[in-house]
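Board work, copied verbatim: Polysaccharide export protein N-terminal domain-containing protein
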Amino acid sequence: MKNIMINKYKYYVYSLVVATVTMGFGQSIQELQEMRDEYKKFQKEQGQVLIPQIGIEGIEPATGLPREAQMIPYLPEKITEQEKSTRHFGYDFFTRRDSVAFWENLPTPANYLLGPGDELIISLWGETQLRETYIISREGKIYDEKVGLLNISGRTISEASDYLKTQFGRIYATLNSKKASTFIDISLGELRSINVN
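↓ predict structure ↓
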């Protein structure tokens, strides 16, 4: 097989050299036709020799149409135990995504800025009892019936706590007095979802 390929290669090189040399001297149409016939004869001879050695019944002409796809059967019994247990790294994160609420258990960082969609829980205790949940609006504000409209967006939790203590202290006098008998706590409920691009 290797010898046939080498002979074929030699013949092509020889034909190419002869063709380029003879083109310079100008050949007649008859000589070119003879060379073409000789080349076709060589192709047929080589093709007849190659086909039995390779074991091909015949070569199908190229039609440009796709051949029927070969279906590879799925044989689960041939899969090894190691292949069954091997998974891509991080695959479990997507399959068990909703079963583990690990984001809810993490504390918010000190530099987290409040924004629209965040939930604030304001608790007052002592002389005055109050526990209210507020969701920051798209404009970055919350509304309390007694205090009014409060702009919270863009503040950290500690900044918001100081601001809310001052604002609620205008209504609840015991919150900011020297002997405070009302206390305030501001905490985050559910956080807004942050889109990562």
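Helices lie at 2-25, 29-54, 81-85, 91-95, 157-169.
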